[in-house]
Fold this sequence. Notes:
Blueprint: H1 2-18, H2 24-36, H3 42-55, H4 62-74, H5 78-86, H6 91-95, H7 102-112, H8 117-125, H9 136-152, E1 157-158, H10 159-174, E2 179-184, H11 186-189, E3 194-195, E4 198-204, H12 207-215, E5 220-226, E6 230-235, E7 240-245, H13 251-259, H14 262-274, E8 278-280, E9 283-286, E10 289-292, H15 296-302, H16 318-323, E11 338-342, H17 353-362, E12 367-370, H18 385-404, E13 410-413, E14 416-418, H19 429-432, E15 439-441, H20 450-462, E16 468-469, H21 487-496, E17 500-504, H22 514-522, E18 527-530, H23 542-551, H24 565-572
Parallel strand pairs: 4-7, 11-12, 12-13, 14-15, 15-16, 16-17, 17-18
Antiparallel strand pairs: 1-3, 2-4, 5-6, 6-7, 8-9, 9-10
Helix pairs in contact: 1-2, 1-5, 1-7, 3-4, 13-15, 20-21, 22-23
Bound molecules: 2'-deoxyguanosine-5'-triphosphate, calcium ion (2 copies) and zinc ion.
Residues 186-187, 192, 195-197, 199, 257-258, 260-262, 265-266 line the site of 2'-deoxyguanosine-5'-triphosphate.
GO molecular function, one term: DNA binding
InterPro entries: DNA-dir_DNA_pol_X, DNA_pol_lamdba_lyase_dom_sf, DNA_Pol_thumb_sf, DNA_pol_X_beta-like, HHH_MUS81, NT_sf, PHP_dom, PHP_phosphatase
Keywords: DNA damage, DNA repair, DNA-directed DNA polymerase, Nucleotidyltransferase, Transferase
Amino acid sequence: MNEQIAKIFNAMAFILEGLNVPFKPRAYAKAAEAILALDKNVEEIFKTEGLVGLKQISSIGQNLAEHIEEIIKTGRLKEYEILKKKLPVDIEELSSIEGLGPKKVKILYDKLKIKNRAGLTKAISGHKIAKLEHFGAQSEANIQRGLKFLKTNTSRVPLGYILPLAREIEQKLSQVSGVKKVVIAGSIRRWQETIGDIDILAISDQPKKIMATFVNLPEVQSVLNYGSTRSSVRLKINMDADLRVVEPKSFGAALQYFTGDKNHNVIIREIAIKKGLKLNEYGLWRGAKNIACQTEEEIYTSLGLNYIEPELRTDSGEIEAAQKHQLPKLIPYGSLKCDLQTQTNWTDGEYSIEAMSRAAQKAGLKYIAITDHTKTLGIAHGLDEKQLLKQCQEIDALNAKFIKEKINFKILKSAEININKDGSLDIADAALKKLDIVSVAVHSAFRLSKEEQTKRIIRAIEHPLVNILFHPTGRLINRREPYELDMKAVIKSAAANRVALELDCFPDRMDLKDTYVREAIAQGVKIAIDTDAHHPDHFKFLELGIGTARRGWATKKDVINTWPIEKLLSWAKK
Ligand code: DGT
Ligand code: CA
Ligand code: CA
Ligand code: ZN
C-alpha cells in the first residue's frame, strides 16, 4: 500500500508541476518520500490510529491524510483521476528520462501528443522536437541521450526504502514451522546503496512449507517460479525476490555464493582453482571431498584469506588485503553517539528541537546538533543571525532541562549554513562563533562549471570556522545527478583544512558514496555520518550510513560521530 500511495503522490507532483501549479508539487513529492521511508504500513496506521495517526507521518497534513484514507478505502483517488486527464501520459516512463522534466513533458503532449517512450522515439527520428519552441536541436539530442541511458539502466531502488520490507519478509519466513535459519544475501547483505532484487537463503526441515508461505505472501504480486528448493516472485513494489532453501551442510558456501558480488566471487573461485580446489554454492571441493562449506569463515580461511566482511566484497582490493592480513577493522553497527545534521520546525522540519532530541535519545544517541537552514534558503524559511542566536537560547534552556531531568543528553548549537555562489557563507562570522559546530552546504547554483563549483566549495572549506561539508556532491539517487565537482581537489582541501566530509545517509542521498568515503579516509579526512533527519523516525537511517562507511573501508576512528562529546567539541574548535 505504501508504494502504491507514493506512486500516486509522485505522479500528482509531476502533473502539478507540468501545469505550473506553485508549491503543491513539492508537498506531494515530499509526502511520497516520507511514505516510502516508513517502516510501517499506512493501512496498519490508519486501522489502529485513524487520520490522527496518518498526520503524524512526516510531511502529511490533514489534506494528504484524507487522500491516503481515500486510497486505502477505494483503491483510487478522485483528485488524481481528474489531474490525469489534464496530462494523460505514461509518467513513469517519461519521468525517468534525464533532461525531460514535467514542463517539457506537458509541452510535448500539447504540441506533439507524445504520451510515452515509443512516441518520443518516433518524434525524435522525425526531428520534430528540435523544431519546437523552447527545445531546439541540443535539447532533442539531450533527450535522445536520456533515452539511451535508460535502456541500459533499469531502475534500482535505494537500500533504505527496501530494507524494512526485506526484513519484514525475513521475519515472516523465520516464523514458518521447520525453518532453522533465514538470511538476506545479495546486494542487501553488502549494504549496496541501491538494490536490484532481494535474495533470501533459508535452512528448513520442511522446504515445501516455507516455499508455500513465500509465494503466498501478501507482498507478492505474481509468482515467477515455484519449486521445492527455489522460488522467485515479483513483489507489488515491482521488484523481484528469490528464495532458496539449502542444506545446513552447505549453508556457508551458498551464503558466500549468493552474497556476491559477482566480481568478488569470480576472483575467489580463481584462487580456489589455483590451489587445486573448486568452489561452488555447495562447498569448497578437493576432488570429490567437500573440505569447507558450513560457514563463510571456513571457506575464506581454507583459501588462505582472512574473513572478508560482505560490505567489502566488490573486488576492489579486499582480496589482496585479506591475503596480506591487512583488512581494516570496520566501524561496528550501533557505534554512533550522535547525529550532526537534524532539522526542526524552526525551518523545514516538522518537530520541535525537544521532540527531535527525545527521539534521538530513544534511538540511543548521546547528543545531536540542530542544523536548521540559513537565510538564503527561502523555500525552507532559513534563519538569519538574529534567529540563530535566539535558537541558541532555546537550546541552552533545553540542555538545562535535561540536566534537571538527569538525562545524559546534550544538544549542540549548529546550522546548515548556505554556501553562496561565490563560496562565501550566508551567516556572519560573529554568529558562527556562537555555534558549537559549523556545517556548510550547497543548495543553489548546481550548474556551475566543474572549475567554478570546485573553487566555490573549496573556498567554503577554507573558511577558518567551518567544520563539516554536508552532502558534498548534492546527488539524489534516481532524481538528480551530482554537481560537477573535482572530488580529488575537495578531499585534498578537506584534509588540509581539517574539515570533515559528511556521509548524509538519507536513503536517496548516501552522499558521500562508498568510493568517495574510501578516497577521503585514505587522505586522512574524517567522515561525519548524519541522517539529515526532518522527522523523529529518520534516526533509523544511521545504520545505512554505517553500511556505506564500511563499504568505504572506514574504521571507528575515521568517523567523528563515534567520538565522545568533549573530543568532538575540541576538534570543532580547531
Ligand atoms: P542486485 O540484485 O542487482 O542488487 O545485486 P546482487 O549482487 O544481489 O545480484 P543478484 O541478485 O543478481 O545475484 C545475487 C548473488 O548471486 C550475486 O551477488 C553473486 C551471485 N551470482 C549471481 N550470478 C552470478 C554469476 O553469474 N556468477 C557468480 N560467480 N556469481 C553470481
Ligand atoms: Ca539481488
Ligand atoms: Ca537475485
Ligand atoms: Zn542540505
